Amino acid sequence: MKEFTTNDIYNEFKRKYKEGEFRIIGNDVQQSKTVEIQNAHFIVDKPYICREPNYKYFNKELNWYLSQSLNVNDIEGGTPKMWKACATKDGLINSNYGWMIYSFDNCNQFEHCVEKLCEDNHTREACMIYQRPSMQIEYNKDGMHDFCCTYAVQYFINNDFVDSIVYMRSCDAVFGFCNDSLWQIEVLDTLCDKLTEKLKRPITPGKLFWNAGSLHVYERHFKYLE
Predict the structure, then answer these.
(1) Do the domain assignments include residue 1?
(2) What's the first-to-final CA gap in the chain, in angstroms?
(3) At what angle do helices 109-119 and 176-199 cross, to 10 degrees?
(4) What stretches in the chain show pLDDT beneath 70?
(5) Is residue 30 part of a domain?
(6) Which residues contact 134 (CB under 8 A, 6 or more apart)?
(7) Is residue 112 part of a domain?
(8) According to the model, what pLDDT value does residue 122 have?
(9) DSSP letters for 41-100
(10) CA 205: distance to chain centroid?
(11) Any catalytic annotation for residue 107?
(12) Which of 34, 49, 56, 101 could tie 109 with a disulfide, CB 3.0–4.6 Å?
């Protein structure tokens, strides 16, 4: 089966844009166009599709993720507009990915993966589950609008390489993908370090596969497709 790359995805976005294949989002009062690929699946051979990441910002977001804080006001250097728009008036959100995989309150997803992979190098049960059923009603609690974009990530050991498969509900291809892919690369590196320590042999990051129900470019970002 052909493995699509980030460049293949970018070219498909450009084709759809050029041919006017738009999806209209919004309501009767305010609508906008998107270019969307549904059921997108590809290998992440570089951490961007349309534009290179802002590594300075990502490091701030990474530190916030690692702090496991569920308050966007704790992001170093001021809260980005995107996070403010998702949060309650007090700054609370659901989608701190560090909290979702490292916290005891969300069942120690990272440690679960380490244990599963150490117990059985051929396991299919090494999953970090970001979503939860209660998200259906908690996404708009107290005025927030934060329905977590990542469902889960699954990990396989293949010849001492760890391949990861990311499953996403929704993914903005311009800004969101950059930060999310860098986060998944960071987690994969950390997981391999932990497995190397536990298994007492070198375990190396392998391929990163991306699956998104909706991968999209918003109208305000169409300049990246021109």
Answers:
(1) no
(2) 30
(3) 50
(4) 1, 27-29
(5) yes
(6) none
(7) yes
(8) 96
(9) EEE-SSS-SSS---HHHHHHHHHHHHHT-SBGGGSTTS--HHHHHHS-TT-B-S--HHHH
(10) 17
(11) no
(12) 101
Q: What pLDDT digit, counting tens, does each position of 93-134 carry? A: 999 999 999 999 999 999 999 999 999 999 999 999 999 999
Query: What phi and psi, each to the nearest 5 degrees, are found at residue 170?
Result: -150, 145
Residue 129 structure tokens: 């589950």
Query: Burial of 55 by CB count in 10 Å (0-12 exposed, 13-18 middle, 19+ buried)?
Result: exposed
Q: Is 128 exposed, middle or buried (0-12, 13-18, 19+ CB in 10 A)?
A: buried
Mean pLDDT of the chain: 96
Packing angle of the helix pair 55-67, 176-199 (nearest 10 deg): 60
Q: How far is CA 139 from CA 87, 146, 176, 213, in A?
A: 10, 5, 18, 18
Q: For position 27, what pLDDT does the model report?
A: 67
> Which of left, alpha, beta for 82 (phi over 0: left; psi -120 to 50: alpha)?
alpha
Return d(Cα 216, Cα 24) in angstroms, integer: 12
Largest distance between two CA atoms of the chain: 60
Domain around 185:
6-225
Q: What is the pTM of this model?
A: 0.95
Q: CATH number, domain at 71?
A: 3.30.572.10
List the beta strands (DSSP E) in the chain: 23-26, 31-43, 127-129, 150-158, 161-172, 204-218
- CA distances to 21, 55, 124 from 168, in Å: 22, 22, 19
**List 86, 149, 171, 192, catalytic entry:** 149
Count of domains observed in the chain: 1
Residue 45: predicted pLDDT: 97
Evaluate whether residue 187 is within a structural domain.
Answer: yes
